[in-house]
Design goal:
With about 240 residues, the protein is of the alpha/beta class. The chain folds into two domains: about 110 residues, D-Maltodextrin-Binding Protein, domain 2 (3-Layer(aba) Sandwich); about 110 residues, D-Maltodextrin-Binding Protein, domain 2 (3-Layer(aba) Sandwich). It is built from ten helices and nine strands. Strands 1, 2, 3, 4, 5, 6, 7, 8 and 9 form a nine-stranded mixed beta sheet that branches. Helix 1 links the parallel strand 1 and strand 2. The chain is globular and about 50 Å long. It starts with a strand and ends in a 9-residue tail after the last helix.
Length: about 240
C-alpha cells in the first residue's frame, strides 16, 4: 500500500508502519512531503491508499471527495515548541516545561529575534496569525522566514539561517544543532491534531482501514508518546 503524509509525522509513521507490518497488516510505503503539497497531490487525484495530514486539511479533502469521510481518524496531538541554534552538535533534548512564562514572554522573544523561522502548514499559519493579533506584523514581518517545503525549521536553526524557530516538538527533538527551549505556554499554545484517512483512490480500502484501526491501539499510542506526540483530545 501507498501513503502520503506531511513532514511533521514522518518519523512517527515510519515506526508505526513497521509495527503494523510486524503485526501482519502488510507493508505501507510512505512518502512524506510538505503538508500543502501532500494535500494538493491528493486533491489532484494521485493514487494513494492512506493519507495522513492535519485534521483541517483532511476535512477539506473529505468534503471534496478525495478521502472517505467516515474513515477520518484523529491519531495524535502535536504541540509547537521553540528552538534556538546550538553549537554543541548533540541531538536536541526534549523539554517538558514551557519556553516562556506566558504569551508576553513569547511576544518579547519574537521582537528580540533577528530572524524567526516557522513552518509551512497549519502551525506556521497559526503563528503568523498570532503575530498579527499581537500587532507585530509591521515590526517583525520582514524577519519572518518560512521553511521551504520539505525543509524542517530545525535545519534553518542548525544552518544559522534563523536564531529563533517555531515547529512541532516532535520535529525539533533529536535534531543536531538545536536547543529546545520548550513548548509554547498555555495562553498562546499552538496545538495540531494529525489524522489519517483512507483515500478514495485506494485499491485496497479494507486493508487500509485495518491499518488505521491499528494506529488507534494502545501499542500505537505508546509509539506516538516516544516521539513526543500526545493522544488526540477525546471527541
Amino acid at each position: 500500500m501507498k501513503a502520503i503524509s506531511s513532514m511533521a509525522t514522518r518519523l512517527l509513521l515510519a515506526d508505526l508502519m513497521a509495527a503494523a507490518d510486524d503485526a501482519g497488516l502488510g507493508h505501507v510505503e510512505i512518502e512524506s512531503v510538505g503538508g500543502v503539497d501532500a494535500a494538493d497531490r491528493v486533491a489532484a487525484g494521485e493514487e494513494f491508499d492512506l493519507v495522513f495530514l492535519a485534521d483541517g486539511a483532511l476535512a477539506k479533502l473529505a468534503a471534496g471527495g478525495h478521502v472517505v469521510p467516515g474513515t477520518v481518524s484523529p491519531l495524535v496531538l502535536s504541540q509547537v515548541a521553540v528552538g534556538i541554534p546550538s553549537h554543541s552538535g548533540a541531538p536536541a533534548a526534549a523539554v517538558s516545561d514551557a519556553a516562556f512564562p506566558d504569551a508576553e514572554g513569547g511576544r518579547e522573544a519574537i521582537r528580540a529575534a533577528t530572524r524567526i523561522g516557522y513552518s509551512t502548514g497549519p502551525s506556521g499559519t497559526a503563528l503568523v496569525s498570532m503575530i498579527e493579533d499581537w500587532g507585530l506584523s509591521a515590526e517583525v514581518g520582514d524577519r519572518l522566514v518560512q521553511a521551504r517545503p520539505g525543509i524542517p525549521v530545525a535545519r534553518l536553526l542548525a544552518d544559522g539561517e534563523v536564531d529563533l524557530g517555531f515547529q512541532q516538538l516532535s520535529e525539533l527533538v533529536g535534531s543536531p544543532g538545536v536547543t529546545v527551549l520548550g513548548v509554547l505556554p498555555q495562553d498562546c499554545a499552538i496545538d495540531t491534531v494529525f489524522s489519517g484517512a483512507v483515500a478514495t483512490t485506494s485499491s485496497d480500502p479494507e486493508d487500509a482501514a485495518a491499518i488505521l484501526a491499528f494506529l488507534r491501539t494502545g501499542a500505537a499510542r505508546d509509539i506516538a508518546r516516544s516521539h513526543h506526540f500526545a493522544p488526540p483530545p477525546a471527541p
